[in-house]
Design brief:
This protein is mostly beta strands. Helix content is 12%, strand content 40%.
């Protein structure tokens, strides 16, 4: 029952439902003017099955709870409100105890350690229906991978209740910023989706911009000013070894992105005073030109099936969004609202295109259908830009810059309804996020 109701709620989120959506029975998510009443969920601290697991059990439980409540779809019931505590991991529960605190979902779990290994077990229950939601799961990993294990549990709970795939066990590559605004040092960095486990990939000796993950999550494309003007590099995240793309050194190249095959790369290049979109295929020594217009064509992004590319162009007089075949050819304009559009990125689900919009002195992150219909603005501020999709296509992350001479950049996330806006915790200023796929 939880699954059915949550699916209805997520569908309403996607279309910004206005009137309340009533459901039969006491277990329901009420939607009023696009606002979902979060599901009350009980997540007792996981049971420590050995003496060395107590701290890990608490930490893992807290990460799971933050993952789920951070979506805006769940409200955690405080443990001090529980009628009874969970002291052992069993396949049965006393549903009356959880109904007494109005829980609609219950997550129980246990943690054990053995040498350098950690085992996490969990079960999910529909309290109203008095039934488990799927089978219990058991996950194993090293002691230093405990956060990943917690994210995997949260992904499984989220998926079982919503019918959507999760996105918590993923990473984000971004530009970490330090120093005053006019002398800011920018380094490539990668972190867990929630800001934990930051790893720096460059030393800050040269300006870096616009990192993009490969579909497999093992490589990153980015723009570097190491040579004095913009050039595209590719880096293996594991070995932190960068290589410049084999494109003419005299060209300024930027806005790179992988094709769904993970090998082909599409990017913009400024040559002879004109900026067009190019494609570099595996093994090729020269890129192919996909656009040829006296306008600026930039920020290309592939559709998930690899058949089309959305990009930004000012061929109509102001920056707008266009879609063309992946091999180039005639492009169709899809943005027709007031203002200037840029940085489009295709949803991994294939149903939406996210973008940055500037209109009447404000910046917005928005989404539209792939034909340009049903445009919706999700945010508004002094400067919002550069959206990137979570692996499940339900959440966006972007850069927000504060106003004023001393303004700094931060990362924010927002769901596709625009109702759940959250600051991402990063060590200092940050910009240009790009979400990885789910980790293997």
């Amino acid at each position: 029952m939880i699954r059915t109701i949550a699916l209805a709620a997520l569908a309403a989120l996607a279309i910004l439902a206005g009137p309340a959506a009533a459901q039969d029975g006491p277990l329901r998510i009420e939607i009023t003017e696009g606002v979902v009443e979060p599901v009350p969920i009980a997540i007792p601290t996981f049971v420590a099955e050995d003496g060395g697991a107590a701290d890990l059990a608490r930490q893992i439980t807290e990460v799971i709870a933050r993952d789920l409540t951070g979506t805006g779809l769940f409200r955690r019931i405080p443990e001090e409100a529980f009628v009874a505590q969970v002291t052992e991991f069993t396949p049965t529960v006393s549903y009356a105890n959880w109904k007494a605190v109005n829980a609609q979902a219950l997550v129980t779990g246990a943690v054990s350690t053995s040498g350098d290994g950690v085992t996490v077990k969990f079960r999910l229950f529909d309290v109203f229906s008095e039934a488990p939601l799927g089978e219990g799961l058991q996950l194993r990993g090293s002691a230093d991978s405990w956060r990943r294990l917690a994210h995997k549990v949260a992904d499984a709970v989220y998926s079982r209740i919503t019918g959507e795939s999760g996105y918590f066990d993923s990473r984000v590559v971004f530009v970490s910023e330090q120093g005053p605004k006019d002398q800011r040092q920018k380094r490539l960095a990668v972190m867990d989706y929630d800001g934990a486990n930051v790893q720096y990939l460059t030393d800050g000796s040269s300006l870096v911009l616009a990192p993009r993950f490969s579909p497999s999550g093992d490589r990153v494309l980015y723009t570097s000013y190491e040579s004095g003007f913009p050039q595209i590099y590719q880096m293996d995240v594991g070995s932190v070894s960068p290589q410049r793309l084999p494109v003419p050194a005299e060209s300024m190249t930027f806005s790179p992105r992988y094709a769904p095959d993970g090998q082909t790369i599409v990017f913009s290049a400024a040559t002879g005073g004109n900026t067009d979109i190019y494609r570099l295929r595996p093994g090729a020594t020269q890129p192919e030109k996909l656009t040829d217009a006296p306008s600026i064509e930039t920020a290309p992004s592939y559709s998930p099936d690899g058949n089309r590319i959305v990009f930004e162009s000012d061929r109509s007089g102001t920056p707008q969004l266009y879609v063309m075949p992946a091999n180039g050819g005639e492009a169709q304009r899809i943005s027709f609202g007031q203002g200037r559009y840029g940085t489009p990125v295709w949803s991994p689900r294939g149903d939406l295109i996210a973008f940055t919009k500037q209109n009447q002195g404000r910046f917005h992150i928005g989404v539209m259908r792939t034909d340009g219909s049903e445009e919706r603005l999700l945010t508004a501020s002094f400067l919002d830009e550069g959206p990137t999709w979570a692996p499940n296509g339900r959440v966006l992350m972007f850069t927000r810059e504060s106003a004023g001479a001393g303004g700094s950049s931060s990362l924010y996330s927002v769901d596709v309804s625009g109702r759940n806006l959250s600051l991402v915790d990063t060590p200092g200023a940050a910009s240009d996020p790009a979400w990885s796929p789910l980790l293997p």
